[in-house]
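Write out the bound-state structure for zinc ion.
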Amino acid sequence: MAVADFEPVIGLEVHAQLLTRSKIFCGCSTQFGAPPNTQVCPVCLGLPGALPALNSGAVEMAIKAGKAFGCRIAERSIWARKNYFYPDLPKGYQISQYELPICSGGAVPVPGLGRIGLERIHLEEDAGKNIHAEGGSEVDLNRSGVPLIEIVGKPELRSAEEASEYLKALRLSLIYLGINDGNLEEGSFRCDANVSVRRKGESKLGTRVELKNINSFRFVRQAIEYEIARQVELIEGGGKVLQETRLFDNEKGVTRAMRSKEEAHDYRYFPEPDLPPLLVSRELLDSVTVPKLPQEVVEALTAAGVSAADARTIVGDPRLVEVHRRIGGDAKRAALFVVGELARAVNEKEADLGALKFDPALVPAVWKLQDSGAISSTAAKEVLAELIRTGEAPEKIVERKGLAQVSDTAALEVVVDAVIARTPAEVEKYKAGKTNLLGFFVGQAMKELKGKGNPGALNALFKKKLG
Ligand SMILES: [Zn+2]
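---
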């Protein structure tokens, strides 16, 4: 098998649940985790005669995504019925957009890959959820009618790694836009991958297979890698790739045929008669504001002196960006605190980014104590750790833990004299030229001062006294 002779062609379709409080065509709650079938009404149950009414919040969020990725936003788009039968779809059709989507074109900026093109972004309603358990299958329609955008990427990705990077960038962008929570496990960010392979140098696309049911970044890589190898092996063995939908089995790490892939005409799309065309006025378009995307925040941080690696780490979690912003002052020093002391505390479960116990604006007060010599750099680390843990004012922590550094020359001199008096042999050697004994003297003094002596001041004092 020679995977190297082939070029994979990958395009991703992402379904992202919009963070509206109510569903797209009715007032039912979108809250995750409620008991089954408690957030339903005649509209989202698809009862005869119930009429959908559009949630304008969902439209604004779709526009926000479209503006952020540079899509063309249609002044007029239409709703379509996508007909299929499935137990989690009581109406027998899903309201989606087909011929005229709200957004088309545009691109997602992906670190290291440039911009990956988009075909379109359209609005649609989610279906319910089948729950297969022992003894039978059940259906929960709480998710039925939850607003989604489907983000259809162009087949511009060439490896499983690129696909994973694209997904990560897209997910983070949607979180920054405040329109999706990026939760793969709860299914609010779902990905299907279209994968085909062709011999290198060929321009015609191979037969594509659609992979479904991929709910983590690791599985995205595994599923695509498996599928590329499977298709290459099939072609090299003289076989043909069938156009089909395959499910990824994350326990066995393989993909399995689920059904032959539907063509668009299988869905018998037609305009939704119960909803008027979706009109986007100039005023609405202008009223939707777009915050900075992750890549722009990385650029702003590096311009302020933060290292590229630290900037990427911070931008990976919008809560860290917020902490960094609230610390203020020296951007680089604040970044070092965020990726250092704070990250460590979070790892050790001493801090929760969702419920911080301290005011980040107090961090510069610790730096001030350190820079003035009132506390040592070691003590500063301890104060920061304690600040994160308790939220107590830095001065109070210094006092309570007795961390104040002795910089007072008179007080230090007493100790320095005592050390010199009781170590005559070392003093002799030092005076004979063994000047690296300076560290030994400072160490002795520090011991006596229980680590609270100002090392700079001690150094200077010993040098002066020993000549
Ligand atoms: Zn409802």
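---
The first helix runs from residue 42 to 45.
The chain has three domains: 3-287, 294-400, 409-466.
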